[in-house]
Specification:
By secondary structure, the chain is α+β, with helices and mostly antiparallel strands. The protein has 21 helices and 33 strands. α1 crosses α2, α11 packs across α18 and α18 runs parallel beside α21. About 6% of the residues have low confidence.
C-alpha cells in the first residue's frame, strides 16, 4: 500500500505518519513510499489503540514515574504476563504497555511476553535484568516483597514472634496424625475451643512459648504454596514412617527444604509398630548425605509415635531449640502496618470470601483496610471480623498468628500477601490502579504452533474441591504434567460438591468427542448426581489424597498417547522381473542391493525416488525355495501383499520392520 494512502486512511499527513511510525514500533524509514500490505493492515487495526497509549506516555505525570532506583536488578522468567512484569518493575501496567508498543509489541495486560522483549523494555527503563526460571522468579519476588514490608528499624520495639512450623513427608507417613496429636495435647485454651476448625494453621503452647503449625491439606498443597513464594515456614518437621523409610515424596520434601535452606528435623514416626526399623531409616538418610546426629552427623532425628504420642514432647522442645537459633528472623515489630500471607481461602455461603492469613509482622485489627494479592490484581477490603483457629472472634491478630479474616471483596489466592493500608486515600489510589487492570479484557493468546496443537489430545477436567488451597495445589500439580502430545485442560474449577451443572458441562464436552473427567477432592457426588452421570456416561472420580488423584490422571493420560512406531530399515531391492499381478498381491523378482530382506517385513515401493505404495512380504524365495531371509547380492522372488500394488520394472523396494512401543509420560 502507498504510504500516502495509508496516511489518508489514518487521517493524518504522510509526514506525520512517517515520524510517528518508528516511535510506535513500526520502522519503515522516512524515505519509504510503500508499506507492505500486511504491515499496513496491522497499523490500521492497531492505530486507535497506539495513539491512545502514545498520548498517555507523553503526559508529564507518567514520565515522572519512570524513576527506577539505582542498581535495581529484576529477575525475569522465560515468559511473564504484562501484569506480573509491571508489578516487578513497580510501574502501572498502562505504562509498561506503552513501553511495549514503542518496541512494536502489542500486548494487553493478561498476555505473556517473552524474556527477550521484557528485558529490552526493562533495560530501556533503567533496570538491570537477570534471566530466571519462572519458579525462582516468583519466589524471589515474593521473598523480596515480604522482606521489604517487614520493618526492623525500630529496634527497641521488636518482639520475638512464634515460629511457624510445617510438617512434610510422604503420603501416609503420619503427617495428619502428628498434627492432630500435637493439637489435641497442646492446644492452649481448650475451654473456649470446642469446634475443631481446620483453617490451615493452629497454635500450641509449650513451656509458655507459642508455636504455630501449618496444617495444609497435604504435600502438594505445601509445595504449591512454597512455589508461590509463601515464605511462611521457619522450620520443617519431616515425617518418615519407621516401617517404610524414605519414599519419593520424602525425597521431594528434602529437595524443597534444601532449596529453601530451611532448618528442619526428622521425625521417625510409627515407632509403636512391630515392623518399625529406625536404624534402617537412619541408614537411608546417611546414604543421601543426611547423617543422623547420633551417627556423627548433623541431622536431628527424633523417634516418635503419633499414635501413642511417644516422643512428642521432645519433638516440641527440639522445635523450640531450633527456633532459638533462628531468632534474628523472628524479630518483628508488632506496631508496624500488618503484613501476612494467605495460607487458605474459600468462598463461604454465609460469610462470603474467607481467608486464613498468617500474620508475619504488625498487628491486624478489625476495621483495618487491607489489600491482598498485590496492588495490581488482588483484592481489598475492610476487616469485618477476625477469628482464631478455634473459630473464636478476636479483636487483633499479632505476629505469628494464623487468623481467619472476613470482609474481603474477592477470594484471594494461597500465597498472596496481605498488606495493611494507612488510610482511605491510599486505598483509593490502590483501588484505582487495580481498576486499570480489571478494565482490560483478557484475550486468549494464539500459540504460534497451532498446527502442532491440532495433534494434541486433551483430557478435560472439571475440578471440585472443598477449599481453595487444595484447588490450587491440584491444578498446580496437574498443570505441571507436560507432554507435547497430550494436555490437561481444566475447564472448570469450583468449590463444594459435584453439581448437575458439572455433569451437563461435561456432557457438552463428550458430545464434541473429547474426553472429560469430573474430579472431586474431599467433596461428594449425591446419589442423584451419580445416577445422572451414569445415564450420560460421564466419569466422576473422587479422591481424598492428592497424590492418588495425580497418579490416576497420569495413568489416564498415558492411555491417550499414540503408541510410538519404531521403524528399522533392513535393505533395498531392485525389481528386475514381474511374474504375477493380482488385485491384492504381486509376485516379482528382485536383486538385493543392500542389507537384507526378511519374510513378513514391510516394503515401501519407490519409483524415481518417490514412494508410490506399501506392501508386506508374504513369501520370500531364493531359487524357488522358500526362505526366511535373503541378503545383499542375492536375487530373490517376492510375494508382496497390498492393494493394487502396480510394481514395475526398475522400482526400488525399501524393506523395513515396524515396532510399536507404548509411550510413557516423563516425570
Ligand atoms: P499422612 O498422609 O502423612 O497425613 O498420614 P496420616 O496421618 O493420614 O496417617 C496414615 C495412616 O498411618 C493412618 O491410618 C494413621 O492412623 C496411621 N499412623 C499415623 N501415625 C502413626 C503411628 O505413629 N503409629 C501407627 N501405628 N500408625 C500411625
Amino acid at each position: 500500500m502507498n504510504i500516502t494512502e495509508l496516511a489518508r486512511k489514518l487521517k493524518i499527513t504522510t509526514k506525520e505518519l512517517k515520524q510517528k511510525l518508528p516511535e510506535l514500533g513500526f520502522d519503515i524509514g522516512m524515505k519509504a513510499i510503500k508499506v507492505d500490505e500486511q504491515i499496513a493492515q496491522k497499523i490500521i487495526q492497531a492505530w486507535p489503540e497506539l495513539i491512545k497509549k502514545f498520548k498517555k506516555i507523553e503526559t508529564k505525570e507518567e514520565k515522572e514515574e519512570i524513576k527506577p532506583k539505582e542498581e535495581a536488578i529484576i529477575t525475569i522468567p522465560p515468559f511473564i504476563t504484562v501484569h506480573d512484569f509491571a508489578s516487578s518493575l513497580n510501574l502501572p501496567p498502562a505504562k509498561v504497555i506503552s513501553e511495549l508498543i514503542k518496541n512494536g509489541v502489542l500486548a494487553n495486560i493478561n498476555e505473556r511476553i517473552d524474556y527477550e522483549i521484557a528485558a529490552i523494555v526493562a533495560e530501556d527503563l533503567g533496570f538491570k535484568v537477570k534471566k530466571g526460571t519462572e519458579e525462582v522468579e516468583i519466589k524471589e519476588k515474593k521473598r523480596e516483597e515480604i522482606k521489604k514490608l517487614i520493618k526492623k528499624e525500630n529496634k527497641s520495639k521488636l518482639i520475638l514472634r512464634p515460629p511457624v512450623v510445617a510438617v512434610m513427608g510422604h503420603v501416609d507417613h503420619g503427617k495428619t496424625k502428628l498434627l492432630d496429636a500435637i493439637r489435641e495435647t497442646n492446644v492452649a485454651d481448650k475451654e473456649t475451643g470446642g469446634i475443631t476448625q481446620h483453617i490451615g494453621a493452629y497454635q500450641i503452647k509449650k513451656k509458655e512459648r507459642v508455636i504455630t503449625f501449618i496444617d495444609t491439606p497435604g504435600h502438594e498443597a505445601f509445595k504449591t504454596m512454597r512455589t508461590r513464594g509463601g515464605e511462611v515456614a521457619d522450620i520443617v518437621v519431616l515425617v518418615i514412617a519407621a516401617d517404610e523409610g524414605i519414599k519419593p515424596q520424602t525425597l521431594e520434601s528434602i529437595k524443597i527444604i534444601q532449596e529453601e535452606k530451611l532448618p528442619f528435623l526428622i521425625a521417625i514416626n510409627k515407632i509403636d509398630k512391630p515392623e518399625a526399623d529406625t536404624e534402617r531409616v537412619k541408614k537411608e538418610l546417611s546414604e543421601i548425605n543426611l547423617m543422623p546426629e547420633d551417627w556423627g552427623g548433623k541431622t536431628i532425628c527424633l523417634k516418635i509415635s503419633a499414635k501413642t504420642k511417644e516422643g512428642l514432647d521432645e519433638l516440641l522442645e527440639m522445635i523450640l531449640l531450633l527456633t532459638d537459633l533462628e531468632k534474628e528472623q523472628l524479630l518483628v515489630d508488632p506496631a508496624q502496618e500488618p503484613i501476612g500471607t494467605v495460607i487458605e481461602a474459600h468462598l463461604d455461603k454465609n460469610e462470603g470470601p474467607v481467608a486464613t492469613v498468617l500474620i508475619q509482622a504488625g498487628t491486624l485489627k478489625i476495621k483495618n483496610l487491607v489489600v491482598v494479592g498485590g496492588i495490581y490484581g488482588g483484592t481489598q477490603g475492610k476487616i469485618k471480623a477476625l477469628k482464631d483457629f478455634q473459630n473464636q472472634p478476636i479483636k487483633r491478630a499479632t505476629p505469628g498468628m494464623p487468623v481467619k479474616i472476613l470482609g474481603l471483596k474477592k477470594v484471594p489466592k494461597t500465597g498472596d500477601i496481605l498488606q495493611g493500608l494507612e488510610n482511605i486515600k491510599e486505598l483509593k489510589r490502590k483501588i484505582k490502579e487495580i481498576k486499570i487492570k480489571q478494565t482490560s479484557t483478557p484475550v486468549e493468546i494464539q500459540t504460534k504452533s497451532s498446527s502442532k496443537e491440532e495433534k494434541v489430545k486433551f483430557l478435560n477436567i472439571i475440578l471440585r474441591t472443598d477449599v481453595l488451597g487444595s484447588q490450587e495445589a491440584i491444578s498446580g500439580a496437574l498443570e505441571n504434567i507436560k507432554h507435547p502430545e497430550i494436555k490437561i485442560n481444566i475447564i472448570k474449577k469450583g468449590l463444594g460438591n459435584i453439581l448437575e451443572t458439572d455433569i451437563l458441562r461435561a456432557e457438552t464436552i463428550t458430545q464434541r468427542g473429547d474426553k472429560v473427567w469430573i474430579v472431586g477432592f474431599h467433596v461428594i457426588a449425591s446419589p442423584q448426581i451419580i445416577t445422572l452421570a451414569k445415564e450420560k456416561n460421564i466419569e466422576i472420580k473422587t479422591y481424598k489424597i492428592i497424590y492418588e488423584l495425580i497418579e490416576d490422571v497420569k495413568n489416564e493420560l498415558v492411555k491417550l498417547l499414540e503408541p510410538e512406531r519404531i521403524k528399522t530399515e533392513l535393505g533395498k531391492v531392485e525389481v528386475i522381473a514381474l511374474f504375477r499381478k493380482e488385485k491384492n498381491y504381486q509376485i516379482v523378482g528382485g536383486k538385493i542391493k543392500e542389507g537384507r530382506v526378511l519374510k513378513d517385513a514391510l516394503a515401501e515401493i519407490y519409483r524415481k525416488e518417490k514412494i508410490i505404495n506399501k506392501g508386506i512380504i508374504k513369501q520370500l524365495q531364493i531359487t524357488r525355495q522358500d526362505v526366511g531371509e535373503a541378503r545383499a547380492g542375492s536375487e530373490c522372488g517376492l510375494k508382496i501383499e497390498g492393494q493394487n500394488l502396480n510394481i514395475q520394472m526398475g522400482d526400488v523396494l525399501e524393506i523395513y520392520q515396524e515396532e510399536e512401543r507404548i509411550k510413557k509420560l516423563e516425570d
